[in-house]
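Consider the record:
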Amino acid sequence: MRLAVVAALVLVLTAVLAMDPGMARADLSPPPVWQGDTLLGPAKSAAQLVKATFDYTASTKAISVKLGSKSVQMTLGSKSARVNGKAITLTAAPKIVKNTTYVPLKTLFTGLGYEVHASGSDAWVVCTGQMCIRVKVPPKP
């Protein structure tokens, strides 16, 4: 049943993209990278994309992203995180790449209340009830 719902949602999103070529589109800078099955992306750029606040404390390696009452806290090098106060285990630990903080993007976006859906092999559609943004992602290796 769940697979059928997901398949129907993908068809609806594909139709929405086809009908709305003016949908907001975004490229994260620097670009996201795959680490196994997890897409890591620049935390600050991703937060700015959805108008969330981003904070990084170097002394504790703490990453915090907030949007209204929603929050995501991660720590560099750790798979332990908190999403809206609930402890979770990440599929990949946040890390620094060329002076940029990279975090698991799906966890970040969903933790802030967004739905994330693949749109072909080179994009994700990130949606709330009010808007959708098509985010370019690299093809999965």
